[in-house]
Records
---
Amino acid sequence: MALTTDIISEYSFAKSYGFLDKPGFSPEWTKVMRGAAEASMLFRYVPFLIELMKASPPWLVRLLDPNMMQLINIKLDQEAQIKAVIADRQSKNQSQKHKTIFHELLESDLPESEKTILRLAEEGQIVIAAGSSTTVHYLKSTIYFVLADPAILHRLKTELSKAMPDPSVLPPTHVLERLPYLNAVFKEGSRINDGASSRLARISPDTDLTYQQYIIPRGTSVSMSTYIQHRNQELFPDPETFNPDRWLGKDSSRLERYLVNFSKGTRGCLGINLAKAEIFLTLATVFRRFDLELFETDRSDVDAAHDFVSKAKGITHI
Ligand code: HEM
């Protein structure tokens, strides 16, 4: 979680939160993010609670849960950063070299109502949540599956030894993406980890949708389940087994269209390329440089038990 949060904060806000540099990699940050995700389920059904929380003074939050101050501090920090970007733009100073998402949003043709400090800060927090917990979930689970099967671990390490003769020199992402076995591990990780397993509802507000012989009237909420799709026996025999070989067969490329862990279409994952780069670089580094083994960890530690992916309003318009 420290790794992915540092990457997304540096990438989006030109400022790493530095969790990797803190003792034990800031384990309390993982608890904060998990707590926020759990609370979001409550907020989804009792939305006024979110307003109550936002209105609470920081001293009260510190009293109730000191760890939550990390979230408050990030929010305050982002508000200060947005104000600095606005001031920078007004004075035509533009001193910051690495543009942030706030620069892009402020320079865009979005209506002014979408550019308030509060609105932009909330967008910043969404990016942190969307860009950290997701990639963590993928990495921790895929690393487990590779370590749990000595044959898979051996094949991956052998391929990486050839591609990275010097373990301290990491090839660029596009080279790693072309390694057949690492690529197969990436796809199998995408399948078995699901991304968001709950239904991500969509509404077409203006036009009716046509699906096979059915007409779905505009305004109807439609959704599908990644969890069920990724366990379709006909497409993925023995679906509960982590098997990268299913992506190495002659006609395996036809399976790719059924992988939906990043969702698809206009509201699919905005961070897919960043996530892929993080995943390829991290898997290559971890398995090339370290000899890891599982410790007091088994399948029950990675199997899905719940899904806290949620949205305040629950539904996305397409
Ligand atoms: C393995 C990692 C990741 C997975 C599995 C994943 C999965 C998803 C999924 C399924 C959605 C669609 C949600 C919905 O339909 O409501 C989504 C949306 C989104 N993701 Fe990711 N994501 C990952 C990493 C990232 C990263 C690194 C970022 C960094 C910016 C990111 C940013 C976003 C954003 C901003 C959206 C909302 C897009 C929109 O509503 O238009 N994601 N992601």
---
Amino acid sequence: MESVIEQSCPMCYTSGSVKMIVNVHEIPYFGEHTELTLSCNNCGWKRTDFLSGDDSTPSKWELTINRNTVTARVVRSSSCTVRVEELDLEVEPGIAADGYVSNIEGVLNRFISAIEMLQRQALQDGDEGGYAACQEYIDALRTAIDGEGSDLTLALLDPMGNSKILHENARNTILSEKEAKELSVGPTIPTFDVSDLGL
Ligand SMILES: [Zn+2]
């Protein structure tokens, strides 16, 4: 389904320039997920996001990271906070947050890339302590990806309930109102509801 929506572009403010493409994916055992892609044909701005087909209960998904679970599929929407709990690592939804579908390894590699960037900065600044600390995080994440069994847990916290870890051992709990309130929900655009799409 492809349509031009009545919303001006958040980047260049041209009205009527934003095109929306909707794809509904059926994920085995986990129901439907709707993929939305918004793009501006004037300036090239683009955003992808995922919406859960079933309900929007604020939820938390957790999975212990090891060699057998790194291939588990992950659907992360733009409102989702990702944590590696034992390392106190967290990525909050940013202004430019896109949703994505990946697997546990892919998510951990995103963490590693971000830490490597910090590490390069530490090197430039001559910050030896910072450099070593970054290396410890990177080593811990790499060991978790390749290891027999780590003590690390990947958690997705989504106040909008649009994110999931697709694995039989994944633990799903409902976030309390207080927990949900404390989380950032990320970008406020797009601002529509799935029910507006007539799906
Ligand atoms: Zn634009």
